[in-house]
Amino acid sequence: MASQLAFKSRIASTESLAKIFNAQEMIASSHIAKARKVALDAKPYSDAISDAVQALVAHTHITHPIFKGEPGNPRVAVLALTSDRGMAGAYTSSIIRETEGLLARLDGEGKQPVLYVYGRRGVTYYKYRSRQIADTWEGDTDKPGAEVAEKISKALLEAYMKPADQGGVSELYIVFTEFVNMVVQKVRVLRMLPVELVETEQQSENETAPLYSFEPSTEEVLDAVLPKYIQSRIHECLLTSAASETACRQNAMHTATDNARNLIADLTRKLNSSRQASITQELTEIIGSAEALNKKEE
Fold first, then answer.
1. Could you give the 3-state DSSP secondary structure of residue 60?
2. For the chain, which residues make up each domain, given as ranges?
3. Of 66, 77, 252, 288, which has the maximum CB count within 10 A?
4. Do strands 185-193 and 135-137 pair parallel, antiparallel, or not at all (unpaired)?
């Protein structure tokens, strides 16, 4: 009897969990389409401003610190994009694992990694282990807005433009999750700063090179465009990470719901077996008692 009560209790608690998992899956399913659309809609702007920066530099002879880090500065910024909430499978743990690998590689190269973390789960992980963090941001990792991208890009760009003796960094890496499709999400490491120039293809003899006129000056135009470039790239990483987080949460909750239902079915079978065993035992005892009474009467 006690075992049957235990089975019933476990079945009831598992059914409650299955309802929670199913609700989380339905919520993620309703959000994923919008998250994918927002990420895709942001890409054309990011690509356009990247092309503008490339064109700006390719057709001028200007040099800017954004294209070449401070020589001799070993400090390197690493930004990890994690999640605010759990129940997303291995989303945050995959980011942390890749970040730890990157930090180890940079340290092995004689560089000094400076850690920046976005997302409450990542912040909690590193603070619990007493790891030094230069700056953190939390809130709305599943729906990141332009405001948080602006805050992050401003802080990182300021750190990059500072000289080494003031705590500046010479490189910036971002660890994020790229959304490929509903099943595949890839953790990537992007070296964002210094900006790498893409070599343009050589023009044919009959092709006329484009002419650009920059007002008020090339330097001022570059100073105005570069912060927007960094912000757009970071915002793009935030949006594709948000879509990946939602997809991971939907997949994780779908798997958890299936596992809970399988566990309920298994517990129900065990409960029925326990009932059958109990009934069989009771029948055996009744038959045995009846036979004993018959023998006494004889």
1. coil
2. 22-195+214-252
3. 77
4. unpaired
Enter the pTM of the model: 0.80
- What class does CATH assign to 22-195+214-252? alpha beta
Would you state the structure tokens that stand for residue 92, as one six-digit string?
A: 């945050």
| pLDDT higher than 50, residue 297 | yes
- On the question of pLDDT at 98 being above 90, the answer is yes
Lowest mean pLDDT across 51-60, 108-117, 182-191, 260-269:
51-60
Whole-angstrom distance, CA of residue 196 vs CA of residue 174? 15
Phi first, then psi: what are they for 117, rounded to 5°?
-130, 135
Torsion of CA 52, 143, 172, 168, to 10 degrees: 110
Query: Nearest-CA neighbor of 218 among 50, 51, 59?
Result: 59
Cα–Cα dist 222/43, whole Å: 21
**Which has the minimum average pLDDT: 18-22, 131-135, 149-153, 204-208?**
204-208
The whole-angstrom separation of Cα 152 and Cα 230 is: 10
What is d(CA 131, CA 136) in angstroms, rounded to the nearest whole number? 12
**How far is residue 44's CA from residue 40's CA, in Å, rounded to a whole number?**
8
Structure tokens at 290: 């009846």
